Amino acid sequence: MDERATSGPEMNHSVGGVDLKQRLARGPRMDPTNLVPYLPRAKWSPGPGDQGWHAMSCQVLKESQKHTRRFPLGVRETCGQEDACGPSPIHLGVTPPRNIHLPRAEYIDWKSLLKVGVMDFITSTAILPLLCGCVGIFSLFKLLQRLRMKAYLRNAVVVITGATSGLGRECAKVFYAAGARLVLCGRNREALDELTRELAASQAAKVQTHSPYTVTFDLTDPGTIVAATAEILQCFGHVDVLINNAGVSYRGAIVDTTMDVDKRVMETNYFGPIALTKALLPSMIQRRQGHVVAISSIQGKISLPFRSAYAASKHATQAFFDCLRAEVEQCGIEVTVISPSYIHTSLSLNAVTADGSRYGVMDEKTAQGRSPVEVARDVLAAVGKRKKDVILADLLPSLAVYLRTLAPGLFFSLMASRARKERKSKTC
């Protein structure tokens, strides 16, 4: 054998009649078992101590480790400079010459491929029409729901108690704009007449409107409730929607509150609304049609300290109308309980205290409450969609409702801490 065939720099780099430089220039071939580039096996057996082999193998490994940490299957040889270069690649069966650069393995960006695949899937002819169809069906559903709500309230006889101020006044405006035939109820005749003139002069209504009808009575007087019911039925013949909105708030400690104050709050917030509901209920059952709405409070689901009489009346309201819903469902009558949180109204100003006097203070939470206009629109939507139970509150009050059920111990501790803070602020 010619000695030049085994000498390092002067050897003939050809295998099977194919020049090694040309084969490397065409790119690496893939081993189906290892899936890594390899070089054709030569007739000679290169030793691991060859300086060119180790220098270039360590350089290739450094470049490949910049992109991936995956290594091919098989036995690995260790370079003498392992700390600096790391483990050497698999013995490929040939010593590359110093003037030939080994091709570097190509790095595959799987994230980019995934993004491209997802975009191709979305923009494909199959998924794009499906998405457009879903959006179209949802839009059509919302449109039909809106049209149904308008048809449900147009020309409907809607009775609103406590319509002279606060949320009741704003509810009168939105239901008037929806085309309902309003029956405005309250204790102050002058305030009711003023609201009637304001509604008649408004240009907000986009549909045919009807002149509101006013009825004056006191919810704490059962005799006036019976007379008002007879007057309403005589005038309109029936009632489509009854909104029990009138109420009074309370501030005080339980130990200082007289029983007269408790009875007064319960008469206004509980006994009055259920008396009016019971008076109008037979006509609804006879027609097998009607809708009863109770404006309760978030305190009908959770109780806050120094609000005992108010929270008790709202808890009773929630329980009564929940029972009513179950009993009259077979008669085709809807019952909706709406529980708002703090609303920026004069409710705290007109609240009664432990001795029965007027509170006369705008609470900080009440001043930061929601606008009554927004709440009135939510009430209109809840009635039009015939919802059963609606909570109109921010995140924290809504979470407190679930916390009361899921973690009662924690809820009671938080309420006790709140009571201590309020008591300290009042004594100071």
Automatic annotation (TrEMBL):
Family: Belongs to the short-chain dehydrogenases/reductases (SDR) family.
Any one biological process term the GO annotation gives: lipid metabolic process
PROSITE patterns to which the protein is assigned, alphabetical: ADH_SHORT
Transmembrane segments: 121-144
Protein name (Swiss-Prot/TrEMBL): Dehydrogenase/reductase SDR family member 7B
CDD domains for this protein: 11beta-HSD1_like_SDR_c
Positions of region (Disordered): 1-32
Gene3D superfamilies named in the record: NAD(P)-binding Rossmann-like Domain (3.40.50.720)
Lineage start: Eukaryota, Metazoa, Chordata, Craniata, Vertebrata
Keywords from the UniProt entry: Membrane, NAD, NADP, Oxidoreductase, Transmembrane, Transmembrane helix
Role according to the record: Putative oxidoreductase.
Alphabetized GO MF terms: oxidoreductase activity, acting on the CH-OH group of donors, NAD or NADP as acceptor
Keyword Disulfide bond set for record: no
InterPro entries: KR_dom (IPR057326), NAD(P)-bd_dom_sf (IPR036291), Sc_DH/Rdtase_CS (IPR020904), SDR_fam (IPR002347)
A cellular-component GO term for this protein: cytoplasm
Iron recorded as keyword: no
Ketoreductase domain: residues covered: 156-341
